[in-house]
Amino acid sequence: MMVCRGEWEATWSRKAAEEAETVAAIECSGHGKAYLDGVVLKGHQPGCECHDCYTGSDCSKFLSNCSANAGSGDPYFLEPFWTKHAASSGVLVSGWHRMGYTYSDGSYISQLLLDYLQKLHARVGNAITEGKHIVFGSGSTQLLNAAVYALSPNHSSPAKVVATAPYYPVYRTQTQFFNSRDFSYEGDTSSWINKTDSNYTFIEFVTSPNNPDGKLTKEVLEGDNVKSINDRAYYWPHYTPIPSPADDDLMIFTISKLTGHAGSRFGWAIIKDEAVYEKMLTYLEMNTMGVSREAQLRALKLLDVVLHGDDEKEIFQFAYSTMTNRWKRLKETISKSKRFSLQKLSPQYCTFFKRERDLSPAYAWLKCEREEDKNCYEILEAAGINGRQGSVYSADNHYVRLSLIRSQDDFDILINKLNTLVAKH
Amino acid sequence: MMVCRGEWEATWSRKAAEEAETVAAIECSGHGKAYLDGVVLKGHQPGCECHDCYTGSDCSKFLSNCSANAGSGDPYFLEPFWTKHAASSGVLVSGWHRMGYTYSDGSYISQLLLDYLQKLHARVGNAITEGKHIVFGSGSTQLLNAAVYALSPNHSSPAKVVATAPYYPVYRTQTQFFNSRDFSYEGDTSSWINKTDSNYTFIEFVTSPNNPDGKLTKEVLEGDNVKSINDRAYYWPHYTPIPSPADDDLMIFTISKLTGHAGSRFGWAIIKDEAVYEKMLTYLEMNTMGVSREAQLRALKLLDVVLHGDDEKEIFQFAYSTMTNRWKRLKETISKSKRFSLQKLSPQYCTFFKRERDLSPAYAWLKCEREEDKNCYEILEAAGINGRQGSVYSADNHYVRLSLIRSQDDFDILINKLNTLVAKH
Question: Is the keyword Methyltransferase assigned to this protein (chains A, B) (predicted)?
Answer without folding.
Answer: no
